[in-house]
Amino acid sequence: MEHVVVIGSGCAGWTAALYTARANLQPLVLTGAQPGGLLTTTTTVENFPGFPDGVDGYELMTRMQKQAERFGTRAQFGTVEAVDFSTRPFALTVDGERVEARAVIIATGASHRHLGLESEAKLETKGVTYCATCDGALPIFRNKPLVVVGGGDSACEEANYLTRFGSVVYLIHRRDQLRASKIMAERTLANPKIKPVWNSVVTEVLDVAQDKVTGVRVKHVKTGGQSVMDCAGVFVAIGHVPNTQLFKGRIAMDENGYIVPAKSAATNVPGVFVAGDCADHVYRQAITAAGMGCAAAIEAERFLAAQKG
Ligand SMILES: Cc1cc2nc3c(=O)[nH]c(=O)nc-3n(C[C@H](O)[C@H](O)[C@H](O)COP(=O)(O)OP(=O)(O)OC[C@H]3O[C@@H](n4cnc5c(N)ncnc54)[C@H](O)[C@@H]3O)c2cc1C
Prior knowledge:
By secondary structure, this protein is an alpha/beta fold.
């Protein structure tokens, strides 16, 4: 039986593993289908402290893994298919095999919604991105027209943030008004660098042949008319889906599926803790996920120590 199982191998998972390993708990990390998590899909990370020249996302995650393994973490490539938190020890089904654990840390992250276009997938990291805070300051976007797709609070935040870098920010939204909160919508529409493009959807990201973003093809949803807008970057901000389906009905979550901790990193099930983007719809950053991983590990360690006593 395991002392601690960490579900997920992103920033939250490896940090939780590092702390529980240093507490002599020999954690088992179940990596899921994406070992290293979301950061492995990006190139340079410029805002993770300790790397003044930036660090490649894949390299950062490899370093986190090595650091956790140095203190006794074991990694297993595997996906958790089912959990039973009603028994003690807890029981997890991992690729058909049963794994038992006295404590579990959920660090399964969140996936961003995609537009679902073939051109979008082909140009991801070549001008198509899902995080303005992460990528907005990159040189390829400086003083160039940029596109944000979406109409909610996130899209507005991304658009406002990007006005620091782009020459103009087109906010493309399928409706004729923003879904964002009133204050955010007002701030966005008052920004002279943001140009809303109403009743419109992106039907293609250009230009796959050039292997970089040069523009978007846009369709007006009412007239069906098509046009091309030049831009250097497309920031897709149409929402995130936390990877928490597995825990539905067992772990308390909000209406969007984000896990809601009962207190600090503890969930409603004693012995089950949570960290990272699967419980964070606000910041969604590597450093915040890592911080939450640290908190979950310390809570798990205290929980196990109290059980012993
Ligand atoms: C393109 C891009 C660029 C980014 N750039 C930056 C940046 O520059 N700076 C920054 O701070 N942030 C950046 N981010 C955000 C950052 O990647 C996330 O905030 C961070 O990865 C969240 O860490 P996490 O551990 O919570 O989740 P993730 O990194 O999403 O990891 C989740 C893990 O859970 C695993 N998993 C999921 N389901 C299961 C299951 N059923 N069983 C087992 N494992 C499972 C997955 O395989 C994965 O390993 C970027 C994100 C993207 C997409």
